[in-house]
Amino acid sequence: MKKLFMLAVMALMVFAVQAQTEKKGAVMDFKEKSIDFGDITQGDKVEHTFIFTNNGDTPLVISNVAVTCGCTAPNWPKQPIAPGATGELKVVFNSAGKMGKQNSVVRIYSNASEPIEKVSLISNVLPKGAK
């Protein structure tokens, strides 16, 4: 019985050590996932740069960035982001033709452990001359 118990304890230790040494791949962690510009005037362009870090153990590769409408333009790094390194995703929102509360969602597709991340630009577009 003692030998069986010791064997079980050793097997558990092996699994625990193996679980700790497994690779986790690329991990994309954003400093912030949304920015609220508050009230802006129709026709204004606002921009924000989202900072992210690859907290994984393999290079992070962004394959695509998709936006909800043509009013939002993203710019992202095309080169792999090394483990521990940071990158920037610059997003510009053009409020021309928009009115009221806006939430422009940007989807980031990558090889990260969470393959689709989202960030958003929030604003309230007022008519010209309303401010």
From TrEMBL:
Top-rank taxon: Bacteria
Signal sequence coordinates: 1-19
Keyword Signal: yes
Assigned keywords, A-Z: Signal
Keyword Magnesium assigned: no
Protein name as catalogued: DUF1573 domain-containing protein
Natural source organism: Cecembia lonarensis (strain CCUG 58316 / KCTC 22772 / LW9)
